[in-house]
Amino acid sequence: MPRPQSVPAEISPPAPARSLRAGHRDRNWFSLCAAMFVVAWGGNQFTPLLTMYRAERGFSELAVNTLLFAYVIGLIPSLLLAHRLAARWGTRTPLVLAVPVSALGSILVAAGSHYPALMFAGRMSTGMALGIGMVVGGLALDSLTTSPGRAPRASAMSLTSGFAMGAGAAGALAQWAPAPTTAAFLLHGVLCVAAALLIARTTTNSPVRARPEPLERNRILLPRAFHLLVIPAAPWIFGALGIAYAVLPPIVAPQLEGFDTAFSGLLCLLSLGLGFVAQRLVGRTAGRSGPARGIGLTLFVAGTLAAAFAAATASIWLVVVAASVLGVGYGLTLVGCLRDCERLAPPGRLGTMTGRVYCLGYLGFGLPTAIAWLHSSYAIGTPATLLGVASAAVAANVAGAAILRILSRTRASRR
Predict the structure, then answer these.
(1) Which of 98, 252, 394, 396 is deepest in the core (most CB within 10 A)?
(2) Band of the pLDDT at 322, cuts 50, 70, 90?
(3) Which domains does the chain have, with CATH numbers?
(4) Which has the closest alpha carbon to 150: 279, 269, 240, 37?
(5) Where is this region: Disordered (predicted)?
(6) Tens of pLDDT, residues 338-356
(7) CA torsion 329→332→334→339, rounded to 10°?
(8) pTM across the whole model
(9) What average pLDDT does this structure show over 297-320?
(10) Are 368 and 257 in contact (CB under 8 A)?
(11) What's the CA dihedral at 9, 11, 15, 20 to 10 degrees?
(12) Do the beta carbons of residue 17 and residue 24 sit within 8 Å?
């Protein structure tokens, strides 16, 4: 029998070469997700410790919520600058820097457990690392795939799993491990070392198009749908989490008999875990991002109303239900907004749009601070404030959708 002719090497490359390239892509994908996971872990591990700092350090409600919000002060500038860093150095170098900066934040918070100013600096450091990791990591993942929706979905899931695991581990260590104010931060430092080794060995250093010059920027305007649909949704992404695990736990803390730190960690793990599952179940096609965002916003409003009722009744079960609904709302709104950015972005503007979504989203973490300030300064109760938050979310998003529809009809009629 004649042997089949082999295909020339220049036409079909050897299978080992193809496997090697695929192996590199898989390893790079895993390393990028690991870096985003670790910086997200560092950003959220402080949250379940709020009750511990209240009880053991005597910090006021306003003080601990200000420390929670502190990392947003470091995060927003890094979000705005991250695209520029990636355009200048590629995607690898900023991520190599972000992981040690996150570890530094943990060291400062652990060392400053009696010194709020040092803790504030540490929280800002973790925020800077998180901002770089979110934007640059998302851009790097986007460069490794051509499948619509895959990169923002992986980005959202990496961040959400890091938020969840960091909060859950910190709550458990603070409740049952020795050295409750340092154990969680030491664990994060170990994880940062492992992630730094992974990201340092990546072979991807994708070039990112620089921001358009002023004249070019005037020609490449961001879409109306981004301003009127995505921007009004963004502040409630992390606002949902701020309510779930900073506003709700103190409501029922007196009923928990010393297990308030563990309960706070459980709420973090529950809300973020359900958010992760929701992101995992979102369809792969980019066309589904609109329904994901709309359903997420609806669940945010429902969860906030449930949280208001839980605050009025001090019911532990209602607190758990409200945190669960808010977690799913967070997950769907985040992945929907990111996929809208991917679908709507003009050339060279994806990083800009993603950064704006995250900036506005993280402003939502100011909700617990605002609620505590209104309560301490004007004696406005938590239920009334939460009702106002739900009303504001509905008004902003309904108004944006209505304006976009009017503009679309006007534009169609002119044609």
Answers:
(1) 98
(2) very high
(3) 22-414 (1.20.1250.20)
(4) 279
(5) 1-21
(6) 889 988 988 878 878 988 9
(7) -160
(8) 0.79
(9) 96
(10) no
(11) 100
(12) no
Q: Which residues contact 312 (CB under 8 A, 6 or more apart)?
A: 383
CA distance 393 to 349: 26
d(CA 49, CA 339): 33
Given a contact cutoff of 8 angstroms between Cβ atoms, the answer to whether 76 and 191 are in contact is no
Closest to 102 (Cα-Cα) out of 196, 192, 162, 195: 192
Q: What share of the chain in percent tops pLDDT 90?
A: 44
Dihedral over alpha carbons 363, 368, 370, 375 (to 10 degrees) = 170
pLDDT in tens, 164-223: 899 899 999 988 988 888 999 999 999 999 999 988 887 666 665 555 444 444 456 889
3-state secondary structure of 113: coil
Q: What number of other Cβ atoms are within 10 A of residue 265's Cβ?
A: 28
Lookup: tokens for 241: 């989490």
What kind and span of H or E run contains 243? none
For helices 150-176 and 15-44, give the axis angle rounded to 10 degrees.
50
Record the tokens describing residue 191, joined without a space. 């994880």
Q: What are 259's two structure tokens?
A: 């297990």
**CB-CB contact of 394 with 400 (8 Å):** no
Residue with tokens 């900073």: 246
Q: Dihedral of CA 376/244/46/237: which sign?
A: negative
Residue 205's contacts (CB-CB under 8 Å, 6 or more residues apart) are: 90, 91, 92, 93
Two structure tokens written together for 26: 């898989």
* The pair of three-digit structure tokens given for residue 240, joined into one six-digit string: 């949902």
Amino acid at 10: E
Residue 173, both tokens: 């260590």
- Helix then strand then coil, % of the chain, to nearest 5: 80, 0, 20
Q: How far apart are CA 268 and CA 326, in angstroms?
A: 11
Q: Where in 168-289 does DSSP place strands (E)? A: none
